[in-house]
Please model this.
Amino acid sequence: MNETDLELKLLYGCPIPIEGVGMMLPPKLADIIKLGETNYNQFLSTLLFDKDNIDLASEAAEYNNLQILCSYCYHHEDFRTITLQAIEFFFKEKAHLGYDESNVFFYFGSELENRKIDNEKLDLIQFVLKKMNFFKTSKEPEYNPANSKAKQMIDLIMKNKKNKPKPKETMNLHSIISGMAWKSNNVNIINVFDLTIYQLYQGFRVMENIDNYEHTLTGIYSGNVNSKEINFSQLHWAKIIES
Model:
């Protein structure tokens, strides 16, 4: 999937086609709030499953992400319920766990329809989810402030929680929504909940860009910022935002 096309679709808020599977629907803030932020984070943690982030027995290391994810689903009913609900939340279709002689997969409708999430499709879905929620797309797990509980479900099932102190959050979903609603000129507390999660984070980053741009110019004009140290080709409120 072309990354630029994906970002434009996410900015517009339209469904994202996953070839051979169906359409992913970027959730609006109203949908996430009705579901509950904790539940949403659990959905993300499940679908963003990465075997490299957990301790595996040596004999299991050869299996791919989907095979291990489906194994967890098969052996843990609660985890299976969360996983199927997560898929249904983003695709608006009831999902099922399936297998044949050589593969495991999730599927929609009947197996005869052949609309299956295999390991390749899971990689694509994870790529879309990371873009949609402004996660880093590198292998190193890095969650935004609104998703500090994102690994909770897998950690609970696998009893693999690390004893590391959690950094104090300076922002969360509530504070970002509130900031957008009260600071933006055209977004307010009434219509902010019609934004998708991607539109919220994108808008928040753009506001930061504009603020930094204006503060830098003010500092230059007032003499508090040395203009010789500024790369003016990089100073622009519409510069590309990296997710």
User: Anything to note?
Assistant: The radius of gyration is 21 Å. Strands lie at 16-18, 22-24, 95-99, 104-108, 116-117. The longest strand covers residues 95-99. Confidence is low (pLDDT under 50) at residues 139-150, 160-164.
